[in-house]
Structure formats: structure tokens, C-alpha cells
Amino acid sequence: MTRIDGRAADELREVRITRKWLDHAEGSCLVEFGKTRVLVAASVEEGVPRWMKGQGKGWVTSEYEMLPRATHTRSGRESRKGKIGGRTHEISRLIGRALRAVIDYEALGENTIVIDCDVLQADGGTRTASITGAYVALADAIEHLRAKGALKGEPLKDSVAAISVGVVDGTPMLDLAYTEDSTADTDMNIVVAGNGDFIEVQGTAEGVPFDRDTLNILLDLGLKGCAELKDKQAAALAEPAAGK
Amino acid sequence: MTRIDGRAADELREVRITRKWLDHAEGSCLVEFGKTRVLVAASVEEGVPRWMKGQGKGWVTSEYEMLPRATHTRSGRESRKGKIGGRTHEISRLIGRALRAVIDYEALGENTIVIDCDVLQADGGTRTASITGAYVALADAIEHLRAKGALKGEPLKDSVAAISVGVVDGTPMLDLAYTEDSTADTDMNIVVAGNGDFIEVQGTAEGVPFDRDTLNILLDLGLKGCAELKDKQAAALAEPAAGK
Amino acid sequence: MTRIDGRAADELREVRITRKWLDHAEGSCLVEFGKTRVLVAASVEEGVPRWMKGQGKGWVTSEYEMLPRATHTRSGRESRKGKIGGRTHEISRLIGRALRAVIDYEALGENTIVIDCDVLQADGGTRTASITGAYVALADAIEHLRAKGALKGEPLKDSVAAISVGVVDGTPMLDLAYTEDSTADTDMNIVVAGNGDFIEVQGTAEGVPFDRDTLNILLDLGLKGCAELKDKQAAALAEPAAGK
Amino acid sequence: MTRIDGRAADELREVRITRKWLDHAEGSCLVEFGKTRVLVAASVEEGVPRWMKGQGKGWVTSEYEMLPRATHTRSGRESRKGKIGGRTHEISRLIGRALRAVIDYEALGENTIVIDCDVLQADGGTRTASITGAYVALADAIEHLRAKGALKGEPLKDSVAAISVGVVDGTPMLDLAYTEDSTADTDMNIVVAGNGDFIEVQGTAEGVPFDRDTLNILLDLGLKGCAELKDKQAAALAEPAAGK
Amino acid sequence: MTRIDGRAADELREVRITRKWLDHAEGSCLVEFGKTRVLVAASVEEGVPRWMKGQGKGWVTSEYEMLPRATHTRSGRESRKGKIGGRTHEISRLIGRALRAVIDYEALGENTIVIDCDVLQADGGTRTASITGAYVALADAIEHLRAKGALKGEPLKDSVAAISVGVVDGTPMLDLAYTEDSTADTDMNIVVAGNGDFIEVQGTAEGVPFDRDTLNILLDLGLKGCAELKDKQAAALAEPAAGK
Amino acid sequence: MTRIDGRAADELREVRITRKWLDHAEGSCLVEFGKTRVLVAASVEEGVPRWMKGQGKGWVTSEYEMLPRATHTRSGRESRKGKIGGRTHEISRLIGRALRAVIDYEALGENTIVIDCDVLQADGGTRTASITGAYVALADAIEHLRAKGALKGEPLKDSVAAISVGVVDGTPMLDLAYTEDSTADTDMNIVVAGNGDFIEVQGTAEGVPFDRDTLNILLDLGLKGCAELKDKQAAALAEPAAGK
């Protein structure tokens, strides 16, 4: 079976991570999974939210949003509607949880890092591209804090990457593009730490419920994809950042 | 190992489903998982949202919310804040997806069923109690449509139930109460169809990432719990409804 | 003349007050006037709003809201609309004023009690049932503060109850059910202290303006009803609370 | 006992009604009760709200708001806060109800009249001045519709006026100014039709509950005040309007 | 060429500035440019916004809004819509900038003056009338601060006035009325200091782009108009204020 | 005098216009004025807003927004605040007006083009870069409509470009970078049609008011800058678009 873009079922799209795409942000990258392009900015802010003050711990949070014409047809801006939609909320929360799972709050000290993931173009997998790129921007932001002597230890316990998997026309597939995702029977997003353990597994039956065997095949595919993304992240972080 | 309330690790809390708790709603129940109490109302509305008109299909959607003093300390009302929080959005969407997975839209005809899940008291598992009760209220609402001759077939393809599982102090457990949930390392919500297949699997590492074995143990526990809930649902639907 | 449910014109519906219906709230009850059911929770919060600080006085406030399917047909949630409607605002303010009229702020000390009245089912008289139940929940919340030694005296100066009266098809009636209320020419809500004095009188001509004699008859009916409610409240507070 | 501004207890402040203060509005006036100044505009709009269409009946509604510096110290604008406060809602609703009580919807035909009451300066009694002025603006707007031949009969069944009364330092008084109102024990707003019947009675115990005798004295005072206001309205409507 | 109201092309409408129209505000006026009427209130508030604290400097800001029936047909209230429109925002910001250009913040001390410009009736030029009247109210508010001994010097460096100019049917004109403004090809608002220098120039091609010569003619007209307004302002400030 | 980045006073920063940066949008570019980077997307939508229907004319509108970390320090998202700020509103309106000045609505037919300008990085001149890039994206969107045969003529009457000018430390300068803009005494944005006529002139005295000579020097500089931008636009549109 050949996929719409000629990939094998267990093959990632072309992944590009352009580090330090922004000049002002303490960490940033433009992450691309095929035509999906997300601009990630990591902002270091002194101090922590009020409810965390005085505990000597840091905080990492995230906000995700799509530009109105990221999609095939234009969507209205949430800022104009005056409220954030459920999908935006849900993905923002997912990204924040994924990153916090690899952070040692005490080592971070009372610093906050805000990760903004803005989807410039969407072709499926925007949340997984966001998490994958966010790790790179986060690592650079932490490096910035280290250079300033603002850390109390090593806050990054591990790396984190994420990928989507799903069953399309009966075939389990890795890294779904939009047209695949929109016809998938089962859709799963997997967030995996650098050591191969799970941080988040979110599987949804879009059509018919799925059985245990399907779940296992999808998990295998997802672990394979995240292992490859881990290498891409390491390569990006190893390069001297060229900026845009 | 004994749990805080004396249960075995694989034991549900006492589950009560009081059908037709409301007089006006086409379907309703008060569902209780221990101290967690959710009032579920299923409302039948003629017609479907504008974007679905003329396709001969129905629609099922859900809204979840907590009363301000459902929790140990009072929370402000989202209506006063002027916006819905991310958690409320996320759970509302989850309940809707869970129910739609067992619905045949064509058999439902151009009818909408709105499921309101309002948490009167929260002690962990409010989303899983909501889904479990929502199936019962949905079944009664569909019965109401059938009695009116408004259906085109049998819209309910299967039943649906949901339960939480997690790892607390190293022990995998079924149906976490609030104090267990708030200290769990891994937290998972599982939505299962009557035939035992998965509708949704959402596992999150709250502390350290979890491995594949842990995932499998949690899935086993969740399937056991949902099978028991399926029987409770059937028993509730078999009784002549006594109302409050 | 017989009323729709067989009552005499000056007869209350069956009134039930189930104390301590909630496990977490410092005071609570499920109050029922016939099919109207309101869940009342009294929450004790340390301190007072910023504008009252340092005066040594307490504060009592209230929020009222209806569940979407409390009514015969479903209403949209105010939290989703992003704003509170005029009716919700008005009733919330009325309940707060009614309770504050029997409170000695100095004796309460710098404590705040928030009374949440959530209408689970509506059949007329939701604001009067709310006030009547709120007194019971408030008394328990104050008892909680007393047990903690947090009071400076006796903050409850008297009890408070409320009832609706109106002219339906030319007949003055007590405690209108929804179908009566919606066809009433004159509609009045009366809030009365335990000593029989008025705390609030709100009469509205829905159809034709009403004369002084009618006003007096309605006031008589309302005073009779509130006297009976006062006994119900006392009985509820006298019982050892059984919880739900 | 002399009042702060030298009035007798049963004396109105100086009342001025300047008709047709605005050039564009179909009806308008600047109504003044002492230093309280409200600009009232009555706007005629063709048709009725969607939920009333096709019934051959008209609609009258009202919106009340205060300019930010109407008061002694500046208040923030509700438009900037993004929401209407409870007091604004409540008074808007009261004005609308008061006017609708004297309107024959069928005679009005399918026309809507919107009454805007904007408080330019506040010194107590803004809601009663609004209602009193609104009747004058409404009468002119109806005259405008009559001149166009857009009426089906005489929509104005009677006039309507409103006044505040209260007990200040133990003395029942008519038409409270701000400093009187803010120290009143009992505060009542009375809306009266031209024939002397009540349209709305809203009495509130601000300090201690009030008894039946006090209620009766206040009602007498209010009826006296409304009778005088009725004459002022008639005089204003009798004059050839001079505009500003 | 004769204008709609008989004016010459370079002639202002009748300008009236009624000082101290309000009793509570520290400075106020009703400013009229023909039928355009704006009520301006200057409110003195102790202290400055948080971001300016401790610098020993003051702040001047402004909010502009239109009453719903200021216009030929009624517009909905922004407070009901829950958001401020772009035009309201833009004009509020313009007025604030215009006033701040003639203020010496240090001499003002840590005081804030808020200028509210509420359009009671609109017939073109509401923003220029607002700025012109705002200067008068501001001068009185500063006088109030001076009388209290709250200033550190003379905060008013110069006066400020504003006028609209435009090209209507090929003719450059001063002070456009609404019907002129709505058909103008080019529309310009000019804010000028007492010394004749520009504070703001905002020219917009509504129809076809305009050339440098047209721009110069319009600037000449505007400077002429502002010089005349400066005299009107001085006259108003010279009079003993009569209030309304 | 040398500028911070070594430019001459009348020299533009490096301008880059990367056409068709997006795959889905009908027209798009990434426009850069030095470090300022704006992603512009032109979306073609069938039909026009309701208030324009049936007139046979088209519509062009624009929305501008900044990503939260476009700036030196992170700003909160307007979507989270639930409202658009004044600056965002003002710039969105300016861009729309600028483009509409060169559009023949009748030739456009009943089509709407929405121009989204999202600032990915801000270093001064974001509104002028937006307008300059928007013309290129608009031209491509119109080309798309032409290719579909959806036009009634040639809707583009001319090109449009924009640039900022200002007086910094006494020196008039072209195309201010952020550090220059934030210390400028006078700040002006000029929008110029391809034929050299003005579409919009917005000059503001940030410090002291400016005289007529300064105004003229700034206009000269702005016209020079816009003429150069016109060439850049033409060059971009002449190239076969390479996409990103």
C-alpha cells in the first residue's frame, strides 16, 4: 500500500528543525513535519505565578494557536471571537504537560518558561510537531538560564518527542498528514520521553472502536517515530545555530 | 495494600444510577461513583446544527460543568469569569466523542440530543461517571424518540462506559478517588464499548513516564471496571424507573 | 376554585429541606417546593473582599444559577454565552440582600460566607425556595464557624424565608407553580424575617396594574406562607442531619 | 425635621422635563430630579425581535446605563469591562417592564420602540427619573408612529411615573437624594400608572426589616409623588416642544 | 459654492463650550460643533497606573464613546456587545495622545486625569469636538489640583484644539458635518497646539488618493480653524463658569 | 550622523518579499524590513458580507496581529484576554483602508479578500511592512480569481506601499527601527499609491509638536521610501514564485 505522498506506512514525513529562527526569544525554532510548520518560541520570565511563589520551584507552560490561514480555508481568529476554543485549550494543555514531565522544577529555580507554539501552516500533526519543536526551544531557553547562572541544577531530565499514528483504510500508519487524519478510523497521539517511556497516550476511535491488537501495533509505530524524532532533535541541538 | 476507603486495588467504588431523576428531561439520571455525584440530563431537540442540515443525520453533543462547591474548596463560576476553562472544554469534548462512537447518525434521523453533565459533588472520576451515566440518559432519550416515531432505525450501536485507572504509590488501581488521583504517578481514563473494544484511551504521566508493562496492567484493570459498569447500566435500564 | 395541583389558594406546595446534602460544603441543603429543586451550598471562606478589609466585619453573598435542563426546554449555559443574564444577576442580588438583612456583620468577624443556589429543576418559585433553603445552609455554616471558635458573637439576628404570591385568573394565590406564574396578572415575591417584618417586597403587574386592596391581600397570603416556612426551617435545623 | 436640601419630607425635588432634547431620536427628553439628570431617547425601529414575528404585536424595551463620571467618583465603563453589571441589568429590566405595563401591543403593530436612559449625572433616583422621563419620550415616539400611519390603534393605555421613598433617620421621606438614599433603613421604588394603580412596588430593608405600618406610610408618600409627576409629564407633553 | 447649511467653505459651524456642565467632575463642559454635542468630564484620581508608580510623574488618559441614539439610527451599545469597537478604541487613543502632547508630566505630579468624552449627539466631527472640549475640562481639572496644592509646577504647556477638513465634491472644506463627511473624497483630522504647531495630522483618501497640493490646502484650512477654536477655548476659560 | 545599524538617514533597511510562502492561501508572502518579519496571507472567499449583498461589488478587509513573542519581551495573547487591544484594531483598520484605496470594487465582483498580517518578529515598522507585503499577496489573490474567471474587470487600480518616517534626535529619518521609533519626537506613517499620491498620512508628535517644515521634510522622505518599495514589490511579482 502506497500513501498519498508516497511514504511507507511506518515512515515520517520530512522533518526540519530550524533553531533560533527568532532574534528576541531565549529559545526558538521553526519545526516542520512536511507541510506542517510551527513557529515555537520559548520565553524566559523571572519569577513564577503567584500560586507557586516562595517554593523555590520553576514553572513551564505553553500556549498553542493557529494562524487563521494555516488551514485550507480561513478560520476566524479566536481573539476576535473573544474566546479560546476547546481544541486550542486542549492542545495548549497537552504541550505543557508533555514538557513538564521532563522538567525538574527544583533545578529550574523560580523561573518560568512560556512556550508559544503558533501554527503557520497546518497539514496534520500540529500538536506533535509543536511538542517536538518545543523541546528544542526549551533546551535553548534553559541554556540561556544556565549561561546567566540562574539555575539550581540540571532541569532537563530527558528529551521529549511526539508523533501521531492512526488506522487509515485499515492500515496502521505513522505521522498522518491532514487528508489521512481526516479519514482515519482510529487516531492516536503519543508523547514519548528520550528513554522510550510514555508521557502521554491519547487514542480515539473516530469510527468504530478499536481492539487491543490495533492499540499495540499503533504504540509500536509511535515508539519508532519518536525514536527517530529524538535523533532529529539531538542533531538540531548539536549544530551551531544558524538562525533563519 | 489497603486503599484509603478499604477497597481492593481492582475494586470499583459503590456505583448508583438513579434513572429519571428529573421530571422535564427526556432522559436523566443521578450517577454516583462513591461520593462523586453527577446529574445527567439528555435533552431532545428537533433538527440539527446548521452545518449538518439536510443530510438526514442526527447529532449528539455534550456539555460538562462543575457546580462551584462540588469541590473541597469553592471555585469561581465560569459563567462569572465569562469564559469556559480548558478542563471544562476538554471533558465536554471527551463525553461527546465517547457517546458519538456508539451512535448511528442515520438511524437517529435529524434529531439532536444534548447531554448535560453537571457535577454536584466531586471526589475523583467525574468524567468517567459522566460518561457512564450519560449512556443511561441517552438510552432513555432515544426511547423517547422511538415512542414518538421519530427514529429511522436503531441509533444505539452499543453501550459505552468509562473508568479511571492509575498508579498510586507504585500500585495500579481502579477507579481513583480524589485523594488517590491527586497523588497518582500515572493517570488514565479508559472509555470502552459494550463489546470490550476501546473508544478512548488517555494516559498521562503525572510524575515519571510509564513503561509498556504498566500501560498493559492499567488497560486490564480498566477493561475489568468497564465490564462491571456495563452490568450496572443494564440493571438501571431494566428497572421500571422510579424517579427521585 | 381548585388549583392545577389540587391545592387551596392559600396552601404551600409540599416543602422538603434535606440538610447536609453535600459532604464538602460547610452548610448545604436540597430544598424542594413541589417539583422545584434547588441545591444550596454555603461555603465559608477566611477573610473578606478587599474593600472590606480591616473593619472587623464579615460578608455574606450569593450566586444563583439554573442548570440548563432545569426547565421544560433546555436553555443555553451562561458560561458558554460568556455572560450572566439579567435575571440571574437580579436573583443573585436578591438572595444576598435577603440574607444580609438578618446578619450581624460584626459578630460574624472577618469571615465570608458564599451561598450558591443552583436550580436543579424549576417549577416556579426558584428564588423563594433558594432564600428559604439558603437560611438553613447559612445557619449550618455559622455553626461550623462557631465550632471553630471563629465568631465574635451571634451573627444570626433572625431567620428569613420567602414565598411568591400572585393573582391568577382573578384569584390571589400562594406559592405559584410555573404554569400559574406564567399566566398571573400580578406576581409578588415576599421575603420575611422570623419576627414577621418585611425584608423585601417585590410586586409586579404583569398584565394590568393592581390596586391597594389586592396588594394587601397578597401581603397577607405571603406572611402566612412565610410563617409556615419558618416552621419547616426550624424543624430541619432541629433534626440530626442525615445527609443525603 | 428639615432635609439636607431644605425640602419637606413629602416634597419632590425640582423636576424638569425638557422634551425633544435630541434632533435625531423619534422621542427624547432630558429629565432632571434635582441634580439627577437622565437623557432619554426613544428609538422607533421597524419590525419586532425574531421571537415575536408574525403575531401582529409590537415591543417596547429599555436600556439603562450611567456615564462614568455621573457619580461622585468615576466608575469604570461597563463596555471596557466587557460586561454589564447586575445593577445595570436590573434597572434596564425594571424600566422596560414599567413601560410595557401601559402599552397595548396589538395597537402598536409590529413596531419596536427602544428606550435608552443614560444617566449624565446621578444624585439618587436615577431609575425613577428614567421611568418618568421615558414615558414622555415614549409618548412622542408613538406620536411619530401615528403621524406615519403605522399604528393599529392607541397603544398608550395610561401614563406611568415612578418615585423613590424611604425611611431616613426614622422619618419616611419622598424622592431621596443620594446622601439620603445611602443612609436609608428602608428604600422603596414605586411605579404607578396614571389611574393610581401600582405597576411595581420594590421595597428593601437596608438596615432592619420594616413593618406593615411603615410599608403603608411609604406607599402613601409614593402615590402622592407619582400624582405630582403625572402632572409634570402632562405639562411637558402639552407644550410645543422647544428642543434644547 | 454654498454648503448644505449655508456656511462658507472655510467657516466653522457654531461652536459653544458650556463649562462646568457637571456638578461632581473636577472639570467638565458640554461642547457643541453645530448639532454635534459631546459631554466632556475630567476626573482627577490620586496616584498613577501601576506601571508608572514612583517616577514622580502624572498621567492623562481618555475614553470616548457614543450614546446609542447619538446617531441617525440607533446603534447597539458596546457594553452589551461585550467589546469596544475599533473606531471607539482609535478615537479614545487619539484624544489621549493629543492631550498628553501639551502636558508636562513632572509638573503634574503623581496624579491621573481621566477625560471622558461621551457623544450625546453626532453630526460629524465628534473626535475634534471632543479634543477641543477636553482641553477646557482638563484646564479646570488642573486648576482643581492647583487649588489643592497638588501640583509640582505648571503642567499645561500649551492649549490644544482639533478640527476636521476634507474635500467634498472637489472643494476643500473646514469642519465637515455628517452629510459632508460621508461623501468626502479626502478626510483629514488635524490637532494643533496653541502655538500653531501640529500635534497630529491624519489624512485619509476615502475615494481617490490625494496629491501634495490638496494636502497643503487642507492643512491651511485646518490651521485656520484651530486658531479660531483656540479663541473660543480662551473665552470659555475666561468666563466665570455658570454651570448648566 | 550614523544610524544605529549604519544606515543613512534616508535609507531603507534590507527589504525582502518572499512570495507564496504558504501552500494553502490564494496569495501570501513573508515580508521583511530588516528584522521585522510579517507573514501575510490573502484568502479569497466567495460572496461578500451581508450588508453588501446584491450590489455586485467586492470587499477587501484585513486583520493584523502580533505573535506573543514577536517583541523583545513576551506579551499576553489577545485571544486569552478575550479582547482585541486598541493598537491591533487601529492597525487592522489602517491596512484595510490602504488596500481598499486601490481596489475597484465593481471589477472585483462579489468576492471578498481577507488579508491576514501576522507579525512573527517586530523591530519597528510592522504596519508599513504589512501594507507593503499585503499588496503583493493581494495581487496574487486577484490573479487567482482571474484564473478562475471570477472577475468582472481589473480590480487593482494601482499599487500601494507604506513606510514610516520620523525625527530622531533632531534628524529626520526613513524606516525607523524599534529603538529609533521608541525615542522619536515625531513619528509618521505614510501610505502612497504607485502614482505617488497619498492614501494615508498619519503624523504624531510624540514629544513636542512639529512645524510645517518638518512635516514637509518627512513627507519627502516617505515618498522616496515608498517609490523604492514599489520597485521591490514589482520585482517580487515579476519573479516566478519559488515558495518557501
TrEMBL record, chains A, B, C, D, E, F:
<dbReference type="InterPro" id="IPR020568">
    <property type="entry name" value="Ribosomal_Su5_D2-typ_SF"/>
</dbReference>
<keyword id="KW-0698">rRNA processing</keyword>
<dbReference type="InterPro" id="IPR027408">
    <property type="entry name" value="PNPase/RNase_PH_dom_sf"/>
</dbReference>
<dbReference type="InterPro" id="IPR036345">
    <property type="entry name" value="ExoRNase_PH_dom2_sf"/>
</dbReference>
<dbReference type="InterPro" id="IPR001247">
    <property type="entry name" value="ExoRNase_PH_dom1"/>
</dbReference>
<protein>
    <recommendedName>
        <fullName>Ribonuclease PH</fullName>
        <ecNumber>2.7.7.56</ecNumber>
    </recommendedName>
</protein>
<dbReference type="InterPro" id="IPR002381">
    <property type="entry name" value="RNase_PH_bac-type"/>
</dbReference>
<comment type="function">
    <text>Phosphorolytic 3'-5' exoribonuclease that plays an important role in tRNA 3'-end maturation. Removes nucleotide residues following the 3'-CCA terminus of tRNAs; can also add nucleotides to the ends of RNA molecules by using nucleoside diphosphates as substrates, but this may not be physiologically important. Probably plays a role in initiation of 16S rRNA degradation (leading to ribosome degradation) during starvation.</text>
</comment>
<dbReference type="InterPro" id="IPR015847">
    <property type="entry name" value="ExoRNase_PH_dom2"/>
</dbReference>
<comment type="similarity">
    <text>Belongs to the RNase PH family.</text>
</comment>
<dbReference type="GO" id="GO:0031125">
    <property type="term" value="P:rRNA 3'-end processing"/>
</dbReference>
<keyword id="KW-0548">Nucleotidyltransferase</keyword>
<comment type="subunit">
    <text>Homohexameric ring arranged as a trimer of dimers.</text>
</comment>
<dbReference type="Pfam" id="PF01138">
    <property type="entry name" value="RNase_PH"/>
</dbReference>
<dbReference type="InterPro" id="IPR050080">
    <property type="entry name" value="RNase_PH"/>
</dbReference>
<keyword id="KW-0694">RNA-binding</keyword>
<dbReference type="GO" id="GO:0000175">
    <property type="term" value="F:3'-5'-RNA exonuclease activity"/>
</dbReference>
<dbReference type="GO" id="GO:0009022">
    <property type="term" value="F:tRNA nucleotidyltransferase activity"/>
</dbReference>
<keyword id="KW-0819">tRNA processing</keyword>
<feature type="binding site">
    <location>
        <begin position="125"/>
        <end position="127"/>
    </location>
    <ligand>
        <name>phosphate</name>
    </ligand>
</feature>
<feature type="domain" description="Exoribonuclease phosphorolytic">
    <location>
        <begin position="11"/>
        <end position="141"/>
    </location>
</feature>
<keyword id="KW-0820">tRNA-binding</keyword>
<dbReference type="InterPro" id="IPR018336">
    <property type="entry name" value="RNase_PH_CS"/>
</dbReference>
<dbReference type="GO" id="GO:0000049">
    <property type="term" value="F:tRNA binding"/>
</dbReference>
<keyword id="KW-0808">Transferase</keyword>
<feature type="binding site">
    <location>
        <position position="87"/>
    </location>
    <ligand>
        <name>phosphate</name>
    </ligand>
</feature>
<feature type="domain" description="Exoribonuclease phosphorolytic">
    <location>
        <begin position="159"/>
        <end position="225"/>
    </location>
</feature>
<dbReference type="Pfam" id="PF03725">
    <property type="entry name" value="RNase_PH_C"/>
</dbReference>
<dbReference type="GO" id="GO:0008033">
    <property type="term" value="P:tRNA processing"/>
</dbReference>
<dbReference type="GO" id="GO:0016075">
    <property type="term" value="P:rRNA catabolic process"/>
</dbReference>
